[in-house]
Design goal:
single chain, mainly beta, four-stranded antiparallel β-sheet, 11 strands, 54% strand, globular
Amino acid sequence: QVQLVESGGGLVQSGGSLRLSCAASARTFSSYVMGWFRQAPGKEREFVSSISWNWGITHYTDSVRGRFTISRDKALNTVYLQMNSLRPEDTAVYYCAARRVETGEYEYWGQGTRVTVSS
């Protein structure tokens, strides 16, 4: 069983920065991929970024590449999403998720943290 707890959301002005954290509990994450997703009001949930726990291989959706950075701290079992140059269109609830490397579907989800970017 994997439990994920996000934190770090809030209200920020356009152009500002926030860092989201996802504290994860599990016996081992070596076979997992950790992801960040977001859901804006009235829209479907979308993929933002992911990182493989063991090798640190990262992926980003085009709209955040160059502005967001995903990282993980193995000692703290925590995944981060550093968000810079935030835009109003980044406003959403951000979710942390985890999946096994060999599967395609994220099976564990956090409760979400809200990010609001004002113009």
